[in-house]
């Protein structure tokens, strides 16, 4: 049976009651306890800094050359918090409600409410660290809107919020490194966890520069390794993002929760050809001021600026008048796909829609002219003034778009199309963020807990920092309080010996196959299967085909992959081989989970389950649960179900109209 360990009492009291009654570890005992943290993005860096500050002996691992290069830097638009600075009706409950509703009622209420509660502390923490959030003229922090909400609760630093937040967490982490409380292991990749008497007690890591395998003991292991969107090959994730740490834990007994819940982001630069290795995200914050449209005429050959207003279809505003361009990501993505599939797409591929700022230039121009006391300004002057405002808010995003596409978005509308971005699934964790393996925790995007079937924009940064700064210091201590008499286990223990031997055997296998096809060849083929048959839309026939095709591809991979070089050197192809081998197993489980969940919810859209007007149709009677999959060996899985109970947010058909 799955035990989520959700505290008793009302939602408003659960977290405070937990903090008031959980076990504590005194400062002297903290110095005796060792904690391993894998991943140094927002969740990992904040956890390492917090636990180091508390006095634990922390080892932090990242495969990048610096913790500053974690993929968290790529988050652009902002971070949510229920501060209600705009006095527009926001509250902890409203953030909680929007998140549960945005996730299509497939998230655990208790975790989401805790997230909303601690969101306000995150902003204070980051401001104290010097994060340069945007401010209003009077000095107060500025807010903007994101999809799925009707309030302004998103704090931002131009279009580089993730980078600035990570620099804050990185600074806190490096302070602990300099004090000797945290030991950093850059260019190290975790290749397995080590269990002793059923508990996670360490990891096997590979030094990516020398190729040497290393053993590291910890009283607890925290996985903060992000999501698995690169199973699709083309995604907005960094090229190095992978599932290996989480998947190795899964194979050791950690349940994998809701693997099919993948987020497709609606505002990405469209695919330009087969040569691409990744996609570029244009921040959702652009939907604050940009309007999305397609021509009303199919295959309209005219340039966008030549199409008059009355011949444009602002389809999100037409279909969802209450939220307009700020509908949640899953809704906006499917709407774009529907228009393109119907023949209204733009650009050479016809797989794109326009994101247009011309009205924003005019609107901000009038405001700025009024502020400056400029009367009777002509259209050209208003445009220039408006561009100045938009440049201040989104300038680096416009510059990035221009560099990638060769088009000036200040002159012609951007072209965007949905792409794989975030994964709501991940390792199953209880209220304490502990997986089904005692002593093993998963934080941030690596776990499944807070977003249900669809993540609202600007909530990823919120969850990562909430888990690291404000949740894990309590929940980890509650469990380590029973471990203070456990002495550090020597890495000569047979469990470490066996784990290292198994990892070495896998590496040797890769190098000895000596096949004819590159690792990327198999990754691209897997990505094509996943996108076409387990992407924005899924159906039973395609999912069954995908499972068979992935099984065949995996067999071919283990017979014909070519991994050059040796194990005892810097060998990126060997790194990729291990990651793609894990993706090939994960992809099958994702399709199996999608096949099993015979309903549509959030980012999981089963074509057999939709309303008359093409919206996602949930089946609360049969599928109001978390899918927690247990690995049984040899490609076999057992499904465990955590029933979801909704006390404060009664499930209803989502309506953004």
UniProtKB/TrEMBL annotation:
Question: What residue stretches are annotated with the Fumarate reductase/succinate dehydrogenase flavoprotein-like C-terminal domain?
Answer: 523-656
Q: How does it sit in the membrane?
A: Peripheral membrane protein
**Amino-acid biosynthesis recorded as keyword:** no
Q: Name one GO cellular component term.
A: plasma membrane
What InterPro entries does UniProt report for this protein, alphabetically?
A: FAD-dep_OxRdtase_2_FAD-bd, FAD/NAD-bd_sf, Fum_R/Succ_DH_flav-like_C_sf, Fum_Rdtase/Succ_DH_flav-like_C, SdhA/FrdA/AprA, Succ_DH/Fum_Rdt_flav_su, Succ_DH/fumarate_Rdtase_cat_sf
- Bilayer-spanning residue ranges: none
GO terms for MF: electron transfer activity; flavin adenine dinucleotide binding; succinate dehydrogenase (quinone) activity
Q: Which UniProt keywords apply?
A: Cell membrane, Electron transport, FAD, Flavoprotein, Membrane, Oxidoreductase, Transport
Q: Which SUPFAM superfamilies match?
A: FAD/NAD(P)-binding domain, Succinate dehydrogenase/fumarate reductase flavoprotein C-terminal domain, Succinate dehydrogenase/fumarate reductase flavoprotein, catalytic domain
- Ranges where the FAD-dependent oxidoreductase 2 FAD-binding domain occurs: 35-461
Identification of the protein by name: succinate dehydrogenase
| Organism expressing this protein natively | Chitinophaga costaii
